[in-house]
Design goal:
This protein has about 500 residues and is of the alpha/beta class. It is built from 19 helices and 20 strands. The chain is about 35% helix and about 20% strand. It is globular. Bound molecules: the ligand C=Cc1c2[nH]c(c1C)Cc1[nH]c(c(CCC(=O)O)c1C)Cc1[nH]c(c(C)c1CCC(=O)O)Cc1[nH]c(c(C)c1C=C)C2. Keywords: FAD, Flavoprotein, Heme biosynthesis, Membrane, Oxidoreductase, Porphyrin biosynthesis, Transmembrane, Transmembrane helix.
Length: about 500
């Protein structure tokens, strides 16, 4: 009997699960129903950093999220394509959890409008840094920064890549640049990558903005010239017929972000249930992979428990550094070294529930702390405000403190005990929010190497990686947040694109 063609997916986080989902769909549509899809996960559970813990009823079943807690409906600084948001909505519909789980946040709600920064003992709205707060922390209205950038001839040259700090200083000069970096980009990039403006790449992180500036000599000029060109800016917008922005216009016009009623892990659990019922997908947990070998006609995956899986194609949905460790050091020396060049930061995520109601100085999404304020925290999320629709009936107030990121080692957070971390948090929350309460319950998550930082040269590293895969004809596809986007919807959409481009016929011939 002929062996079924097999695609192996390594890594059971969201990227691995949606790889299996889209691949199974594609196999059916491409009339390859006998395709075997094997998903191998190291631990006993699926979902990676997406993890939701529902507290007992005595704590009103509040939900603690370890990782992401909201999904965006609008494309933003960090997003890959405007279609990634509606692709996730479609997925929720296909999995039949849209009606029961989708909790949108109105564009006009405080949890969307009020993204704050901690500045000089105050919480200031990021949207009106130079207006409401008496001209501080930004000294001038936005038009001044815009006009300077538009007319400045200085720093108008081609750049392969540079740090975000250097990009802003080049375009806005040292004086205006310093303000924009310290009070806008430093905190905002903490709130996305937990990363530093001196390392993060302008080309990879501010992709659209950097491209516009390089093409038009000025970022504002580029924005004005292309403002009616939205669709042309998005080269892959037509790839999927089922993603029609018009179908979702009522949602997209009204809402900005959303959360899932029972937590983000609902998406993972529903995907797992769906995949378990698919005849051609096998989900195998507790498989600690030790080695990956690319042979002439197949890929061999061996595990610590001496199991050997053979596949025609491999999809790596693990972080880049983990994949690097599994490859043969002699045969794939350069590929390993490039994969290892993608850096990751450690995070500490502390969920806290307080007995007292309305502990927040202002209804908001939360606040970020510029490095200049010298805090041990990166930012604080106001979960009770974010989850207002469902949590308003619940007692108490809930927030999440984020620590670490690019500053994890410098602050020696790895050496702190839980008690020490809690003491730091209590002191900082007292200072920043005037919060003098002890939490009823808390949970401390230590997320090692959780968020990739696309540092200067990231695109060159990716180009090298893709070139090696092509040159050596490796049957390998890379998905996950290590490469092309860190948001959940971007990872899901990017994975769908990769599965669409995967040529199953050549893979299995
Ligand atoms: C303080 C640390 C962090 C906070 N959130 C994250 C970290 C590291 C993680 C994160 N936040 C965003 C993304 C992008 C993906 C996505 O939403 O799809 C990730 C991985 C989104 C985001 N959060 C904030 C901003 C300005 C953005 C970008 C939105 C856009 O692209 O339009 C603000 C923000 N993040 C945190 C806080 C406390 C905060 C604001 C006050 C926490």
């Amino acid at each position: 009997m002929q062996k079924s063609p097999t695609v192996a997916i390594i890594g059971g986080g969201i990227a691995g699960l949606v790889s299996a989902y889209y691949l199974a769909q594609k196999a059916t549509l491409s009339k390859i129903p006998h395709l075997r899809i094997l998903l191998l996960e190291r631990s006993s559970r699926f979902g990676g950093w997406i993890r939701s813990e529902q507290l007992p009823t005595k704590y009103d079943s509040h939900i603690f999220e370890l990782g992401a807690r909201t999904l965006r409906l609008q494309s933003g600084v960090a997003s890959l394509s405007s279609h990634s948001a509606i692709n996730t909505l479609k997925l929720l519909e296909q999995l039949n959890i849209f009606d029961s789980q989708f909790c949108p946040i109105d564009k006009t709600a405080p949890a969307n409008k009020n993204k704050l920064i901690y500045y000089n003992k105050n919480l200031v709205n990021l949207n009106d840094l130079s207006f409401i707060y008496g001209g501080k922390p930004l000294r001038y209205p936005p038009i001044v920064y815009g006009l300077y950038e538009y007319f400045s001839q200085k720093g108008r040259y081609a750049v392969q890549d540079e740090s975000i700090k250097s990009f802003i200083y080049r375009r806005f000069g040292d004086v205006l640049g310093e303000e924009i970096v310290e009070y806008l980009l430093d905190p905002v990039l903490k709130g996305i990558y937990a990363g530093s403006v001196t390392n993060l790449s302008a080309r990879s992180v501010l992709k659209k903005v950097f491209d516009l500036e390089q093409r038009h000599g000025s970022l504002l000029r580029g924005m004005l010239k292309t403002r009616n060109n939205k669709q042309k800016e998005d080269p892959i917008h037509n790839l999927f017929n089922d993603l029609n922005l018009k179908d979702y216009s009522s949602i997209l016009n009204k809402y900005a972000i959303y959360y899932l009623k029972d937590g983000m892990e609902t998406l993972v659990k529903t995907l797992v249930d769906h995949l378990k019922s698919s005849s051609n997908v096998e989900l195998i947990s507790n498989q600690h992979i030790q080695k990956i070998k690319f042979l002439e006609n197949n890929v061999e995956i061996s595990t610590r428990s001496n199991e050997i899986y053979s596949a025609d194609h491999l999809i790596s949905a693990m972080p880049s550094f983990e994949l690097a460790n599994l490859l043969d050091d002699k045969q794939h020396e350069i590929l390993r070294s490039r994969l290892n060049q993608i850096s990751f930061v450690n995070m500490i995520v502390i969920n806290l529930l307080y007995l007292k109601e309305n502990i927040f100085p202002k209804e908001a999404f939360g606040y970020l702390i510029p490095s200049r304020e010298q805090s041990n925290l990166l930012g604080v999320l106001f979960d009770s405000c974010i989850r207002h629709t469902t949590d308003k009936q619940k007692h108490g107030s809930q927030l999440t403190v984020m620590m670490g990121g690019a500053w994890y080692d410098q602050l020696r957070l790895g050496q702190c005990t839980d008690e020490q971390l809690l003491a730091i948090v209590t002191k900082e929350l007292k200072k920043q929010m005037n919060l003098d309460e002890k939490p009823l319950v808390y949970s401390i998550g230590r997320l090692n190497k959780a968020i990739p930082n696309y540092n200067v040269g990231h695109q060159d590293v990716l180009d090298d990686i893709y070139a090696i895969i092509r040159r050596d004809k490796l049957p390998l596809t890379l998905v996950g947040n290590s490469y092309r986007g860190v948001g959940i919807s971007d990872v899901i959409y990017d994975t769908r694109v990769e599965m669409e481009y995967l040529n199953l016929n050549s893979t299995i011939s």
